[in-house]
Design goal:
The protein is mainly alpha-helical and 196 residues long. The chain contains eleven helices and no strands. Helix 1 packs parallel to helix 3 and helix 5 crosses helix 7. The radius of gyration is 17 Å and the shape is globular. The termini are close together. The mean pLDDT is 90.
């Protein structure tokens, strides 16, 4: 179950990190503080590298199971649709809000890495642990950009449930593909996190 869900995270990451980079590209021209501008550039560079690394992981999985291409396509499509449907304020609030809450989950992964990643492909385990470390490193970057450009706390927090619903919809779309592609895997392995 853990392996399946980590593989799903790679498909999710490609769409989400492409979305982050789009938002940072559009926000760059609005930054007037050199410190925030440098933070944006460093943040975008890390997310771009993460996206490329996860895309390689997805390509390797798709090479083994071509039907998984639909999961990658759907992740990208859902984030592209969101980008077209909302304004930059929304996107920066989404990015800043989500990036700032990842640390507890990623810390849990680090603290339990021997058990969670035991027996798996060490290259994939390294990918995730490296990614999680960098996510913790830049957990405030999206907020810095949002606060500099818009700075409306209530706007950001009042939409948090919307952001989480969208994340859930993307993960569910990816999960639907995995269920279809791997019908012999028990259903609880796709969604049951309690067994970890």
């Amino acid at each position: 179950g853990f392996a399946i869900n980590m593989n799903k995270v790679s498909f999710y990451a490609v769409g989400f990190e492409k979305y982050i980079c789009q938002a940072m590209n559009d926000a760059e021209k609005l930054i007037t503080d050199p410190r925030v501008l440098q933070e944006l550039k460093d943040f975008r560079a890390q997310e771009s590298i993460h996206s490329m690394a996860h895309r390689k992981h997805c390509k390797a999985l798709i090479a083994q199971t071509p039907a998984l291409q639909a999961a990658l396509d759907r992740s990208i499509e859902l984030y592209d649709e969101l980008y077209a449907a909302e304004d930059l304020k929304y996107h920066l609030a989404y990015v800043g809000g989500l990036e700032s809450i990842f640390t507890p989950s990623f810390r849990l992964m680090f603290d339990n890495r021997e058990g969670l990643f035991a027996g798996g492909d060490t290259r994939v385990a390294s990918l995730f642990l490296w990614h999680f470390a960098e996510e913790m490193e830049h957990r405030s970057s999206g907020l810095m950009v949002y606060d500099h450009v818009y700075g409306e706390y209530f706007y950001r927090v009042s939409r948090f449930k919307e952001f989480m619903r969208h994340v859930g919809a993307v993960i569910e779309a990816i999960t639907d593909v995995f269920r279809e592609v791997f019908p012999d895997i028990p259903a609880e392995h796709f969604t049951n996190y309690s067994s970890y």
